[in-house]
Design goal:
Length: 436
């Protein structure tokens, strides 16, 4: 068992010894304490410098390659826009190439064509394709200008930036991807042009078919309309002819009735030859005579003055008549019109047409456009979508690690850490001294 020290009475306890310098810090004494531990500080600084140097020289350097694209001049797209099929502005072409740069399909095509470039990244645990996918996911970046800027037309650009290890040909990869994107977009535009031309040609063929069908429908409708008009006109003429003949027959029958009455009257009066009222009066007065008189009257004499013989002769002729058509000139005109309606030359001409396309008004414009589209030569060699303003080049210095900066920071941090450790040791040593 340990013997505990005996506690003195309160009046016999001595007061604690006051610190000679209170809460103030003696800088000279502090400097002496740090100087006394200079070896420790130097060792810590050396250790941190050694670690920094190890990091700098053991870490594989990372390089950065970057290519910049700008909008092509307007003349670079003239040949494309002059086709009148697909219109593309320089900004739209730049955006399309930028989209191609970010397309995984385009990058995969570049990898398939240049797989040996990425074999340096392969190892036992990772294939070249896996390494390529990791590279484009983590270290490849598409650069684009800010569309919110008001002066965008002067600053529009698209870029491709790659951070890569020293063993990789990064500049060749960036330039190759840019070339692949431009080539791929050229092929895409060419394919789009072919599709648009094909669709336009199909549309023209549909328009021609529709025009032909419409023309045939119009022609058949016109033929039917002409035939219907002929039928109606023929029916009207036949009705008119029938009515006229009936009217003429009634006139003839009426004339015969009038003649019958006039004959009876003439016989009653004893009039056999044509005469006049004045002549009859003279005959009655003189008995008989050989004088023939001529009289002119403004009024028509009754029919019986023609004499029974003339009236009977006329009645006989009328009764023997088989047709009254010759008495009405309109009947001859109707028969002429009916004969003309037997053959409608306009209908025969419409039916006899061998090539209806010659009469299609819009066919000429459609065939002209069709010939123009078929004559288009879709060649993208003369088309410039973008301008490679800054191709990627192999940099001389890596972007990381920054050797000088890392070494300086390591030494500075080592010095700070050494001073801090020395201060802590000095403080602990002073506290122990004060307690003694």
């Amino acid at each position: 068992m340990f013997d505990l020290p005996k506690r003195l009475p309160v009046n016999q306890q001595q007061p604690l010894q006051q610190a000679p310098y209170g809460d103030e810090i003696d800088l000279f004494e502090l400097f002496q304490g740090l100087w006394a531990q200079k070896v420790l500080i130097v060792l810590i600084v050396a250790l941190c410098g050694l670690l920094s140097g190890a990091y700098v020289f053991l870490t594989e350097p990372t390089y950065e390659a970057q290519a910049m694209l700008r909008p092509a001049p307007i003349k670079g797209l003239d040949e494309l826009n002059a086709m009148g099929v697909l219109t593309l502005s320089p900004e739209e072409a730049l955006n399309r190439v930028g989209a191609a740069l970010g397309s995984y399909e385009v990058r995969q095509q570049f990898f398939r064509k240049n797989e040996p470039l990425f074999e340096v990244l392969a190892s036992d645990s990772i294939t070249a394709e896996q390494a390529f996918r990791r590279l484009i996911k983590d270290d490849l970046q598409v650069l684009q200008s800010d569309p919110k800027k008001s002066d965008q037309q002067f600053e529009a650009f698209v870029g491709l930036k790659l951070q890569y290890p020293e063993s990789l040909a990064g500049a060749d990869i960036v330039n190759g991807m840019v070339e692949q994107a431009i080539t791929s977009e050229n092929e895409r535009i060419k394919a789009d042009l072919a599709v648009v031309v094909k669709n336009k040609l199909a549309s023209i063929e549909r328009s021609v078919s529709e025009a032909r069908a419409g023309y045939q429908a119009n022609k058949q409708a016109k033929i039917a309309e002409l035939m219907e008009s002929d039928v109606l006109q023929r029916a009207n003429l036949q009705d008119e002819l029938k009515a006229l003949r009936a009217e003429l027959r009634l006139r003839r029958l009426s004339r015969i009735t009038q003649l019958d009455e006039a004959i009876r009257i003439a016989k009653e009066l004893g009039i056999k030859k044509p005469t006049t009222p004045s002549a009859m009066d003279q005959v009655k007065a003189s008995g008989s005579g050989n004088t023939i008189r001529t009289e002119v009257f403004n009024q028509q004499f009754p029919l019986y003055f023609m004499g029974a013989e003339a009236l009977e002769a006329e009645r006989t002729v009328l009764r023997q008549r088989r047709s009254d058509d010759h008495t009405e000139p309109r009947i001859a005109k109707i028969q002429k019109e009916l004969q003309l309606l037997e053959h409608n030359r306009e209908i025969e001409t419409l039916k006899a047409r061998q090539d209806d396309d010659l009469f299609l008004k819009q066919l000429e414009a459609l065939r002209t456009e069709e010939a123009r589209l078929k004559g288009l030569s879709i060649d993208m060699k003369g088309v410039q979508l973008v301008v490679v303003d800054q191709p990627a080049i192999t940099p001389q210095d890596p972007i990381k690690p920054k050797k000088v900066l890392v070494l300086v920071l390591g030494l500075v941090l080592g010095g700070m850490l050494g001073v801090f450790v020395a201060l802590i040791r000095n403080l602990i040593g002073n506290r122990k001294t004060a307690q003694i």
